[in-house]
Amino acid sequence: MNARRFIGNDPVDAWPAGNRLEAYGDGLFETMRVHRGNVPWWPSHWARLALGAEKLRLPLPDEAVVHAAAVSLFDDGGDGVLKLLLGRGGTGRGYAPPARSLPLWMLSRHDLPPARGADTDARWCDIRLAMQPAFAGVKHCNRLEQVLARAECDDAGVDEGLMLDIEGHVISAIAGNLFVLVDGRWLTPAVDHCGVAGVCRGHLIHLLQAVETSVSAAQVEGADAVFLSNAVRGILPLVRLGSRAWPPHPAIAAARQLLAGIHPGFAFDAALKTERS
Length: 277
Description:
2 domains; D-amino Acid Aminotransferase, Chain A, domain 1
């Protein structure tokens, strides 16, 4: 991993010990797919980061400085994953945020994850997502629910998990959003009480004219097609959920083609899916 840390707009070798990001998870993060040295969805990721920072009252560094540092990590023109971590400055005990502080932020470069096969399977996770409208949609650094859900899936030997809120509404996958095809229309769970409003999800809502709504477990299991989405992997068709199985569906292949049209990093995935369908 190649990483660079900053305080405010200045590079540093390390952050202060006891900083609030490490002590309380007082921060946000973005994970972006890089294609040939470029970040095609940078504006969307920065917009979500800025919205989250506004909700959490976090100071933001200068976008131009962050973008220049991000591009420099991929100055070889390579593909990969860019992670941006933003935290509130300040140290010491106590929850109260300091009145003024410079933001802590870090950029890191990672390899693309291994491509999954065409047999992505999932389970319903036992752990539920807490409902907190103040954080709804925000990609904050408190991810213990997802950590425990991922452990469930690893123990069960499945690729992914689908997560419900404490009232039983379907919200998302562990590391992605969810789309279900019902009566010829794409639906995606609303994230106004909990969950993350994914960047890829936002683009797909527009491309597919998908409806954000309450989704039940029965609707997922009875859907004509189901896929997961995130900004690194794009679209992952779901083929098994417990005893329910789905064959390849042309609507998912069409969705992947549309996504490839606005992010060249997903063009290969779309072409491969078309060949298989």
